[in-house]
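[STRUCTURE TOKENS]
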Amino acid sequence: MTPTELLPAPPPQAAARRALLAGSAGNLVEWYEFGVYGCFATVIAANFFTAQPGTSGGGAEALVAAYASFALAFFFRPVGALLFGRIGDRFGRRPALVLVIGLMTLATTLIGLLPTRADIGAAAPWLLTFLRVLQGLSAGGEFGGAVSLMVEHAPPGRRGLYGAWQSFTVALGLLAGAGTAAALAAVLPAEALYAWGWRIPFLLALPLGTVGLWLRTALEEPPGAPPGGSPGRPAAADATEAIDATDATGPTGPTGPGEQARAVVLGIGRIMGWSAAGYAFLVVLPSHLQSALGASFRDALLATTLVNLGFAASILPAGLLSDRVGRRPVMLGGALGIAVLAHPLLHLLQSPGASPQTRAAAVLTAGVLVGLLAGPGPAMLAEMFPRRVRCTGLGLSYALANAVFSGCAGLFITALTARTADTAVPAHYAAGACALSAVALLTLRGNDHREPLR
């Protein structure tokens, strides 16, 4: 018996709180950085993707290039979900989460130290893209490990609330990123912001990540049997055999070698609206308001802060409500709400006669609707997969959905708006994805949230 085994087990509630805190820390760092990148997309385009950095804008082509780098990081998320998800399922949640936050913090800090195109020429955008790839790998492993940790520690009847903390810290990270960018824009002249001020938010990831790393090294594994498969067995064999007495839609049903893949595909369908609308409204909005609607940098950041406030305010209540009434009605309400209201809300933002209060209400409403999807979403995905492949399965579903519908959002919206001059492209994108997602959400069963995790 080891010294660790001789120690008394911590109280379940204390262990659950520590797991919630440690699991949330990495999400905050990750989405803080992504929020900063979205807010500073025009600044990054000017410094890394144009031949004349330091101007007041990077131009449409440079902005598309900046979002292409953004999208590339998302396409490495599935690789990270497989790599770190496998570590989390086989060796435990803690080692996977420690690795991903370390890699994430290193890459984010290095972005803040990168020389620009004016300093080293064409190597600058390539180095930035490489660091974005590292972030994509770490972010891909973050979601599966963090959600598994939090949901598996949740008390009975609280999985929706515990999983919602993952999304809530996403909102906090985006708010922190937007707030930091807005503060810098308020206190620094435009020349200083483009020259060196943009580096400050990226460098702040170092102390944030250090705190998160400290929290994660001290957390306990979730209660129950040791996670993961059998050492020496192929990962594919574990994944195929892991669907014990389950189908892709809930806790009971037929078995078969294709059920794991079916569950991943169905999970993607259920959260594609969350992914698309979340990025269209929460991340892409600042640069779209500037490049397509002529808003000032400060006004765009204010709108982004408000939409993220609405998002943050609705997440935990939505997760808690889903514990009481089920995941399906709450998430369907968010998806159908966005499908119906995306165009009217964007029209209000574009209307010259709309008052500031009306525009503020529009962006707050958009954020609240996304929160209805993001609150129950993590627990819903966790309930689709058994423990031995939960990190990999839910992480891969989330990573693939984000790679396609989030990572491409900025690139698609910016390029299509420039080509067609249609300023309603973000609304088309969000509404279409949410309409399709609503169809997939109809397959949820009403009592899935009450069944024990497998």
About this structure: The CA atoms of residues 71 and 407 lie 4 Å apart. The two ends are 29 Å apart (CA to CA). The chain has a mean pLDDT of 81. The chain has 22 helices and no strands.
